[in-house]
Amino acid sequence: MSDNLDLKKGLDIPVEGAAARRVIKKVVPGTVAVSPAGFKGFSPRLLVKEGDRVLAGSPVLADKMNSSILVTSPVSGTVSKVVRGEKRKLLSVLVAADTEQEFVDFGTIKPANGEDVKALLLGSGLWRTIVQRPYGVMADPSVTPKCIFVSSFSTAPLAADTEFALGGEAENIQAGLKALSLLTEGGVHLGVNKEVAAKSPFAKMEGVITHFVSGPHPAGNVGVQISHICPILKGETVWTVSLLGVALIGRLIRTGKLDLTRKVAVTGPGVVDESLGYVEALPGTPVKDITAVFDGQRIISGDILSGESVGTEGYLRWNDNQLTILWEGPEREILGWAKPFRPGVFSSSMCYFSWLTPRKKYNMDTNLHGGPRAFVQTKCFEDVTPMDIFPIYLVKACLAGDIEKMEKFGIYEVLPEDLALCDYVDPSKNEIQAIISSGIDLMIKEMA
User: Fold this and answer.
1) How far, in Å, CA of 269 to CA of 132, rounded?
2) Is 448 helix (H, G, I), strand (E, B) or coil?
3) 408 vs 406: CA distance, rounded Å
4) Which residues, 6+ apart, have CB-to-CB distance to 199 below 8 Å?
5) Which among 37, 38, 32 has a CA at the least distance from the CA of 55?
């Protein structure tokens, strides 16, 4: 079963620094960080102490509210340090990796039902690959979702090419999709890039409901696909899994080992041409081991719109397969707003002449070219949001903390990443994703 979804609204940001389709190296890290960050709704409880020995797949953290949900180590080795922040908040657990890796043996079983799948994913720590909507929290094992969604491609700026990064994982992805289908009666919906569907191995997956999707970013976002195919109503639950997560699940089922290795796209204007490509690495690998970094650069784990700045001493996040490097651009441009000709600047609103060179890529930095100002109501949010919601009214409802209006204007439909382009095009320089995130936090607090 399949259908077509052609989206018109959105924006592809023409930033230079795409990763070449080549594997530059394989990183064997000396130390790996296991962090609870990035898993909304997860309250970490430490299960190890400094000096303990762990295997790849051994539990390191557990959820305080549900002890069956675990975060496991991606490598075998010795716990070298427990890093804490203010008020003893647990930030990460550092594991000194062994030269020869040892794995927990989870067994090469073929799950026969949903309970088998849950037990395997919970025990291995791969349950954290499943995100529950609304609110984008870690999935509740006691809930049966209406359906499960997977997007097999990303339209985010400089995103990893899934055909290259995961094209060789077709058998693992098929096994992962089959396992996920046992968790819901509503089926697994797979979004496929319509432009490359003829040669994509993901278009040939069996046992799923395939949707061929085309359009500019955020067409590849699973949230956008859900809004057009199976909108989330109040009281309903939908689960989502990234294609990388599906591949990891299938790899576990077929090998019995927790192998989290992935091809990481090293991208961005701050990367020298020789380093633009893919690196085989594990989550938690120091970014300095993946590529050279310098002072004055912003290191982002993920894409430039919804990724996280991790700094030169940071680590690759657990769910990412992209590293983006930009120059900070702290300098101010005198009367930049008054210059009629700025060939080096891209404008989404045709203020400059970038629309005359649609194929040009730009050496962008993090300069905002201005500061926060009055929240001006314009049509720009609607132009880049291909969803049946009212984005500007939703943002204002979140600012006001008005739960009734947040429900009315679509808070159940979105996560911050779905409105990331609103950050980029907003003339008032508001942090739209942060506003949406605060609104979701309020909904969890008041409605859960």
Assistant:
1) 34
2) coil
3) 5
4) 163
5) 32
